[in-house]
Structures are given as structure tokens and as C-alpha cells.
Amino acid sequence: MATSMNPEERLNRFSTFGEVLSQESWTTRLLDDFVMSDVYNLGGGQVPRLTKVDELIKWAEIRSLLEETGKVHAYGKIRGWPPYLEAYARRYNEWYRKETGGNLELDPKKHIIVVPSLSAGNLFLVQSFCGLDEKSGVKYKCVGLIPNYVGIERQFPSGPEKTFIAIYQKMKINENNGTFKFEPDQDTLETLENALNIPEVNAYYGPRPNNPDGSIISQEVLEKMVKLAEKKGVKFIQDCAYAGPDPNYVYDDVKCVPVFSDNSIIEHTHSKYGEAGDRLGEWVSKNEKLMKRLERVVANTIFHTQQSSQAYTQRLMEQQVLFTTLMEKDALTEIDKTYREFLKRNIRTILDTFRKECVSYKENKVLVCKPQGAFYVFCHVDLPEGITSQTLYRDLKNKKRTIIVPGDAFVFGKPYNPNPEVLGYDPLTLGAKTFRLSAVERTEERMRQGVLNVCEQIDHYNGIHR
Question: Are residues 284 and 198 part of one domain?
Fold first, then answer.
């Protein structure tokens, strides 16, 4: 017997996944914060368009529009704009050879798919690999290290608590200089192997360099992790948003090269050097069978990624801007260098301001994770009872017009190893005691003032008045 239903209730019905996606999240809050005027932005991941970079991109855009207008606005190839794919494959192969001495030999027609940013790319991958398989009745899950990228939190079917298995990392603290680092060790590898033995686990997801803390899993440990997953038949997603070939924000003394294997999917993005609004990213994998299926995922959802940004980025790669006298080297190398210098300056400003201005830091109540790449500084803070990083976020936003991201944004999923005695800290309080600062303010003075606002608020909580 059919039951009557209130039309308004019916209109507001969503699927389970629709309910997950339509909830407020830290991603929605961050995007709202981006559009606030006259704030110190220490929260978002959008770097500003610097003058020198803006000139290069502008002339590349003009040239691509003059030469390709009729082509880029028509339907294109599912995998991407062919000249872009060819240029990207050449650039990637050259970079890989320089970094490792080995030959990668990416084929632009088989091993690369252009996606509309890693945010959308992650959604496609997570939805393809995780969730209910109706044939078997099994709900596939994903595993990853915590803390992890905020943008993926609400992309899991049924929500992260039911779909994401969270492996917490040990925190290595150096109280002599007020720093700490999340560092996967043999215990982490054993925990990962146990998690990979869970039959429902179908994928591993992890950023490198890590978002939010900017630390980098060593090449040796990453290779072991990939081999563990490959042995179990688990797909291994490496989010390399800040690693080479572009943008390459990895520090010179750190090796950070993706590990290619039959189960690996490497993700890259071009949004991290002033092109955030153009939503351009790539999937790279040598597994041709897997890439063919993912090509169909793209075709069945968006047809293909818009081509105008691919056209002008291809020209940046190949030094085909309108006035080539603007640079001595190829444009993307010049852009990467410009942003590395800008971001390192801002990170130094963050660290120096804590050392000089924050009394709580001097008393070891604040620890900072010195990054090895990316443009984030992740902080651990001891606060009085009842005050959390969310309190800090709200007070800074409302009282000092300063935006940060509380640690809760990066701590999600079902904890797999929540043992404080092994980890050296209570994982249930990790989000409440941490926050991320982004080194993206345009001027050094604004960067310093934003961090000073953070220092003053933390000192105020700890009863230190200036």
C-alpha cells in the first residue's frame, strides 16, 4: 500500500551520497573564507598571481587564443588536448630522467588523462574505487595516513567514517628547537599492511608532500608502501600536487619522486602557481588497462576537461608565449622558481615570527612542523581546557580578520590504530590541538601581521598579555 508523502519532504530528499556531499564541511567553510575582503589569508591553498608570473601567463593565454580559439571551444579528446598531452609527457619524462637517472617513457596517448583539478579528480577516483559493489554486496573502502587532505573528506560514499580507514602516524618531537614531524616508521608499515589485509580495502590515498603539514614521506618508505599495496592488489593514489614536474615546491635537499608501479595512480595539478581558477590537473599511470577504464569515467561524467587552460599551459611549457624575450628559460621553470622563492620567504616569516613574538612557542606550548615542500606550516598547540583549534579559528576570524584552518579539517575517517601509548599522543585530540597556516599572503608584512595575530591569540588563551 502506497503511503502519502509531504511534497516538500520529497523535494528535499537526497541519496546517501547526496546527503554526504551537501553537508557543510571545512571545504565549504574555506571557500566562503576565500571571498571575505580585507582578511589575512593564512587558510587557503591559493597562491596569488605574482606580477612576473602574471605577465608570462597573460601572453601565453593571448597567443593560445589567437591560434587555437576555434579548436579549444569545440568538443575535444576525452584524455585531453593532444598538443598539451604531448608537451606534458615530454616534460615529465625529462624531469624524471633528471631526478632519477631512469627512463619513464610516458606515452601521451596511453598514460595521461587530464582532469578538471585534483578536487574533481579525487571525486572520480574515490567514487570509482570505493562504495557498494552490488554484484558482491561488498562496500569497498579506502585507507590513508592521518592527517590528510581536507578536500577529500566529504567525497567518500556514506561519509568518511564508514569508507575511510585512518592510520595515525607517530609524532617525532624535537623540543630543543620547537619542531615536530609526522614520520611513518616500521610500526606504520606494519599497521598499513594489516589494514591492507582487510578484504574491503580497495585503494590507498595519500598526498606527497603531505597536506596539511608539508612533510615528505621518504623515498624508501614510500617504495615499501607501494610494494605492500601492489602485493595485495590495492590501488595506490599518490597526490603530488606540490611535486614535480610542475609546480615543484619540494625543497632542494629532499628527494620526492613518484613511485610508478602497476597499481599506482599519480595525481598532479597546475592550480598551485596562480592558476587555481582554471582547474587543471592530471592522472598519470603506466597501467593502460586501468587508464582505459578511467578514461570512460571521465567520458561518462564531464566528456573532457575544458581545453583553453591546456592550450596556454602547453605554450608555457614550450616557451611559446607571445614575447619570448620575457624569459631566459622556459616559462614554467621560471614560474616554479619564482613561486619557490616567494613561498620560502613566507615560510621563513612564519617561523621567525613564532620564534620572536610567541611566548607560548618559547615555552614549548606551540610546536611547528617545518615543511619539506608545499607551502604550509602545521602547528601543534597546548591550550587551556575547553579551548580548541576551532575556538582559535573562530576568534581569529571574528576578532582579528585572520583565517587559519583548524586541525579537525584534516582528521577524519575511522581510526585504525588509536593507541596513545604507541603513537605518543592521543589521536582523539589531534584535530583539537593542531592547525594549519598557509604561506600565501602577497607581502612579507601582511604575512608577518597575520602570524602575529595568531601568536597574540594563543598567548591570550594561555594568560600571557602583551
Answer: yes
